Amino acid sequence: TIWEERFVGAAQDLVSLWGMGPNRIAMVGGRNNGVFVTWNGQEWTTYQLAPTPGLNGVWMRDADAVHVVGTYGTLATVDFETGVLTEDRSVAAPDLGDANDLHAISGDGVGHLVAVGGTLRYFVSGPFEGVVLTRELAKGE
């Protein structure tokens, strides 16, 4: 009913959020360098993920692993508790090149993960291209 502004300690833009309940919320953003923010029910924690580029999308299958996507085709997983980022090397993704950013990520409880994006970062007359990446998550991922 009433929105309240909260200071979370992030100096960069926050673009996307996902929650697994009132005590498990993850947010991502940043323009040039990725930023990852968590809420554990008691405090906000901000992690600077440089040199990872800006992040645009976030999704959590469980309370610990946070899947993120971003500019320059960034695909990664971040540990909720530590903010440690690991590149998602299990994805047999094509080289997306500098023009393709990933904008959003989502999945389901069964283990399907989907990331989408395209060439929208460059303000040109086209041709614009979209990209969809999919993969199956391993158990516990």
What attributes does this structure have?
four-stranded antiparallel sheet, single chain, mainly beta, 141 residues
Please provide a written account of the structure.
The chain is an all-beta fold and 141 residues long. It has strands spanning 14-19, 25-29, 35-39, 44-48, 55-60, 65-70, 74-79, 85-87, 101-107, 112-118, 130-136. The strands form three sheets. Strands 1-2-3-4 form a four-stranded antiparallel beta sheet, with no helix packed on it. A hairpin with a 5-residue loop joins strand 7 (74-79) and strand 8.
* End-to-end C-alpha gap: 35 Å
SS class: mainly beta
Strand order of the largest sheet: 1-2-3-4
Helix content: under 10%
> Tally of extended strands?
11
Question: Sheet bearing the most strands, described?
Answer: 4 strands, antiparallel
C-alpha geometry: globular
How much beta, percentage-wise? 35-45%
What is the N-to-C succession of helices and strands? EEEEEEEEEEE
Using only C-alpha atoms, the radius of gyration works out to 15 Å
Average pLDDT for all residues: 85
Low-confidence stretches: none
What is the number of helices? 0
Summarize the structure.
This protein is mostly beta strands and 141 residues long.
Element layout with pairings:
Elements: E1 14-19, E2 25-29, E3 35-39, E4 44-48, E5 55-60, E6 65-70, E7 74-79, E8 85-87, E9 101-107, E10 112-118, E11 130-136
